[in-house]
From TrEMBL:
It holds the Pfam family SoxG. This is Sarcosine oxidase subunit gamma. It comes from the Bacteria. InterPro entries: SoxG (IPR007375), TrmE/GcvT-like (IPR027266). Transmembrane segments: none annotated. It comes from Geodermatophilus saharensis.
Length: 196
């Protein structure tokens, strides 16, 4: 039986991403395991069961040992892992939250990540995103569920300077968003880089 090769939805855009200048860099992040967690009571017991403190402030994220915990709502979080397989992460998290009345569902295939870095990234994002991206408002540890262009995304700020973000987008919208970001970046790309 032939083994199916897993390809990234943005594999065809890798060359276009590489041609961008350092002021606006786009990189397709590798697949990571993602689990959506619903849990109504968050406290010491949940933290002990999960082995991490879930963010309780709206629109924030925290790093974990091997990924991130992203606040999605008053009783909902997205947990990611770069080292666990999706089914392992789901089983571990489900075992931790089920006794607390919670639930966990593997959503790894739902979204992919795009990393945006560079001095003009905030300007590129601002062309199609209505939230305030100023670093003193949207610095490291902040997140937002918003639209970018016409795509629904989860936007994470990875730096206090506004020059490093991750956009989580549905896999089916990844190509659209990649094209949109490349087009938006043109305004902030030196003319010489466009001609190459």
């Amino acid at each position: 039986m032939a083994e199916l090769l897993r390809t990234h939805p943005l594999q065809a855009w890798a060359g276009a991403f590489e041609r961008l200048p350092d002021t606006v860099r786009l990189t397709a992040e590798p697949y990571v395991a993602m689990v959506d967690v619903r849990l109504s009571a968050v406290g010491a017991e949940a933290s002990a069961a999960l082995g991490l403190d879930l963010p309780t402030a709206a629109n924030t994220w925290v790093p974990t040992d091997d990924g991130r915990a992203v606040w999605l709502g008053p009783d909902e979080w997205l947990l990611t892992s770069t080292t666990e397989a999706p089914e392992e992460l789901e089983a571990r998290v489900r075992a931790a939250v089920l006794p607390l009345g919670g639930s966990a569902a593997d959503v790894s295939a739902q979204r992919i990540g795009l990393r945006l870095t560079g001095a003009r990234v905030r300007d590129v994002l601002a062309t199609g995103c209505s939230i305030d991206l100023h670093p003193r408002v949207f610095g490291r540890g902040r997140s937002a569920q918003t639209t970018l262009g016409q795509a629904g995304v989860v936007l994470l700020s990875l730096s206090d300077g506004g020059d490093d973000h991750v956009v989580l987008v549905r896999s089916s919208f990844a190509g659209y968003l990649a094209d949109w970001l490349l087009d938006a970046a043109l305004e902030f790309t030196p003319t010489t880089a466009r001609q190459e």
